[in-house]
Amino acid sequence: MNTPSDHPRAIDAAAADYRAILARIEAAGRAAGRHDTRLLAVSKTKPAAAVRALASQGQRAFGENYVQEALAKQAELAGLDLEWHLIGPLQSNKCREVAQHFDWLQSLDRAKLVTMLARERPPERGPLNVLIQVNIDDEASKAGCAPAAVAALADLVVAEPALRLRGLMAIPQPLAELEQRRVAFERMRRLFEAVRARHPGVDTLSMGMSDDFELAIASGATMVRIGTALFGAR
Ligand SMILES: *Cc1c(COP(=O)(O)O)cnc(C)c1O
């Protein structure tokens, strides 16, 4: 098949973009005194061939927003050893599919989902890695739990052996001035440190996207979620 993303030149360009992003993550981490920042490649709306091209460069972790779209790609790429993260809002009627088919859920935001996910997680898959999504700017329209509700939700997740609390995720408001975004990132860092002090297994602060991941790393992100800068505009 000759779709554009199968074309060798497209794959070369994707590989060059990938290496450039990895180098920028590495440099931002070094400047912040860390070396462990992970890249989540956000492949929503992009074809399985684009995921395959990046996987051939060594990328393992991919993020998807829509469950059905993700399941279709997972089926197409079943032979590859990939790690799938759900980063979009989770409806309760999708808990079973998420528990069965994902490695990470980054968008847990309410108590009701905790027992449903734990009940549906197949034991042979090991615990589902969970990040609590925080509505750090208290936007009425945004998914995520209120900062004040994080501690109680974290305790609920930790009480379920089928789930493994790994940390927090946020999508701060895309304020025009990059420097203004630092305020929300720093608030997330403080919240993350409070959760980690209580639950030592917690190791992941997921924040920063294509246009602000270096600032997020400077503010303490251990995982950045990048779509556009890797795969082009959606
Ligand atoms: C789409 C999306 C991203 C990636 O955004 P880009 O700006 O394309 O890098 C990251 N996180 C979440 C939750 C998203 O929905």
Summarize it.
Helix content is 42%, strand content 17%.
Structural class: alpha/beta
Strand order of the largest sheet: 7-6-5-4-3-2-1-8
Look at the structure and name the CATH superfamily: Alanine racemase
Mind telling me the C-alpha Rg?
17 Å
The total strand number stands at: 8
Domain count: the total is: 1
Residues in helices, as a percent range:
40-55%
Shape annotation: globular
Q: The biggest beta sheet, please?
A: 8 strands, parallel
Q: What's the end-to-end separation, in Å?
A: 22 Å
Portion in strands? 15-25%
H/E element order: HEHEHEHEHEHEHEHEH
The CATH topology comes to TIM Barrel
CATH architecture: Alpha-Beta Barrel
Mean pLDDT: 94
- Low-pLDDT sequence parts: none
Instruction: Count helical runs.
Output: 9
What does this protein structure show overall?
The chain is built from nine helices and eight strands. It is an alpha/beta fold and 234 residues long. Helix content is 42%, strand content 17%. The model has no long low-confidence stretch (mean pLDDT 94). It has helices spanning 8-31, 48-55, 67-76, 95-101, 111-120, 150-158, 178-198, 213-218, 228-231, and strands spanning 38-42, 61-64, 83-86, 104-108, 128-134, 163-170, 204-206, 223-226. The chain is globular. It has one domain (4-231): TIM Barrel, CATH 3.20.20.10. Helix 4 packs across helix 5. Pyridoxal-5'-phosphate is lined by residues 42, 44, 65, 87, 171, 209-210, 225-229.
What is the secondary structure topology, with strand pairs?
Elements: H1 8-31, E1 38-42, H2 48-55, E2 61-64, H3 67-76, E3 83-86, H4 95-101, E4 104-108, H5 111-120, E5 128-134, H6 150-158, E6 163-170, H7 178-198, E7 204-206, H8 213-218, E8 223-226, H9 228-231
Parallel strand pairs: 1-2, 1-8, 2-3, 3-4, 4-5, 5-6, 6-7
The structure holds pyridoxal-5'-phosphate (PLP).
